[in-house]
From TrEMBL:
<protein>
    <recommendedName>
        <fullName>ribonuclease H</fullName>
        <ecNumber>3.1.26.4</ecNumber>
    </recommendedName>
</protein>
<dbReference type="Pfam" id="PF00078">
    <property type="entry name" value="RVT_1"/>
</dbReference>
<dbReference type="Pfam" id="PF06817">
    <property type="entry name" value="RVT_thumb"/>
</dbReference>
<dbReference type="InterPro" id="IPR043502">
    <property type="entry name" value="DNA/RNA_pol_sf"/>
</dbReference>
<keyword id="KW-0808">Transferase</keyword>
<dbReference type="GO" id="GO:0003964">
    <property type="term" value="F:RNA-directed DNA polymerase activity"/>
</dbReference>
<dbReference type="InterPro" id="IPR010661">
    <property type="entry name" value="RVT_thumb"/>
</dbReference>
<dbReference type="GO" id="GO:0035613">
    <property type="term" value="F:RNA stem-loop binding"/>
</dbReference>
<keyword id="KW-0378">Hydrolase</keyword>
<comment type="similarity">
    <text>Belongs to the beta type-B retroviral polymerase family. HERV class-II K(HML-2) pol subfamily.</text>
</comment>
<keyword id="KW-0695">RNA-directed DNA polymerase</keyword>
<dbReference type="InterPro" id="IPR000477">
    <property type="entry name" value="RT_dom"/>
</dbReference>
<keyword id="KW-0255">Endonuclease</keyword>
<feature type="domain" description="Reverse transcriptase">
    <location>
        <begin position="32"/>
        <end position="220"/>
    </location>
</feature>
<dbReference type="InterPro" id="IPR043128">
    <property type="entry name" value="Rev_trsase/Diguanyl_cyclase"/>
</dbReference>
<dbReference type="GO" id="GO:0004523">
    <property type="term" value="F:RNA-DNA hybrid ribonuclease activity"/>
</dbReference>
<keyword id="KW-0548">Nucleotidyltransferase</keyword>
């Protein structure tokens, strides 16, 4: 990483209620056992907090790295867009998901102490326990770029060995495609070996070998591609709501043939106050544009290519 300053950045840890503090301590214990963090006396510090995930009834550790991100030079994306799934010939794909990709990529030893956090105690009855990450932390602005580069390097031997196969890679989601089942299986073996040799883990429970399969928000059958989500949340109250909605539309726009011109009334709502909490509401024109998008989500689909036909 390239840093704008070597002066330590310290943001104090805020108090946590008893239940959340207990969950934080358990998560820290788990990360210590996995070798993702170590105890430290680093002069850097950023706060942490936990959120409860209702679906799995579990807790997630989050590190607030906003101040740290301010003093890191941007790397920029290596993969500025999504691969087009319609370029995958019919009947080909196999989906492989990499497990907790960030936590399997080591931080440079000189950078690691800058990603430090502190665990407080109830009523300050003991000193802070302090730890820094040894692996790529979620929330660091360059983590996605580093992840893209690291996985691409890991896949390079498999791509060289199987040039006839199509190996798509976006972050920690992999898709393998080839003309025959035998070629798919051979490429799969090479991919799994390559990523494991790089220290990455394959989430075996998420390997998808039969149709339909899900990849990057799409539901793929042997011939067609449709969005997994076919209903938009169009209740807009703030700029943040609007940005999230446009992000969802942008994910499927090109594949479903939704043009920028059709979305102009919605884009116009971005003008004005840049505060994400600033108020926004849909105009009649924007509402009409979103109705067209919803209709496209429900009725349109893309198709995988037929190799024998020209593009």
């Amino acid at each position: 990483l390239s840093w704008k300053t070597n002066n330590p950045v310290w943001v104090g840890q805020w108090p946590l209620e008893k239940m959340k503090l207990s969950a934080l301590k358990e998560l820290v214990k788990e990360q210590l056992q996995r070798g993702h963090i170590k105890e430290t006396n680093s002069p850097w510090n950023s706060p942490v907090f936990v959120i409860h995930k209702k679906a799995s009834d579990s807790w997630r550790l989050l590190h607030d790295l906003r101040r740290i991100n301010e003093v890191i030079e941007n790397m920029g994306p290596l993969q500025p867009g999504l691969p087009s799934l319609s370029m995958i010939p019919r009947g080909w794909p196999l989906i492989i998901d990499l497990k907790v990709c960030f936590f399997n990529i080591p931080l440079h030893p000189k950078d690691a102490p800058r990603f430090t956090f502190s665990v407080p105690s109830i009523n300050r009855q003991e000193p802070l326990r302090r730890y820094h990450w040894l692996t790529l932390p979620q929330g660091m602005k360059n983590s996605p770029t580093i992840c893209q580069w690291f996985v691409a390097q890991a896949l390079f031997p498999a791509r060289q060995k199987h040039p006839q196969a199509m190996i798509l890679h976006y972050m920690d989601d992999l898709l393998i495609a080839a003309a025959t089942q035998k070629e798919v299986e051979e490429a799969r073996g090479s991919v799994i070996t390559a990523v494991q040799d790089a220290g990455l883990e394959v989430s075996t429970s998420k390997v998808q070998e039969t149709s339909p399969c899900k990849y990057l928000g799409w539901r793929m059958t042997e011939q067609s591609i449709r969005p997994q989500k076919i209903q938009l949340r169009t209740e807009i109250n703030t700029l943040q709501d609007l940005q999230q909605l446009l992000g969802e539309i942008n994910w499927v726009r090109a594949t479903l043939g939704i043009t920028n011109d059709e979305l102009v009334p919605v884009f116009d709502l971005l003008r004005g106050d840049c505060d994400i909490t600033s108020l926004r509401s849909l105009t009649p024109e924007a509402q009409k544009a979103l109705e067209k998008v919803t209709k496209a989500l429900q009725q349109r689909q893309a198709h995988q290519c037929v190799e024998s036909l020209p593009f």
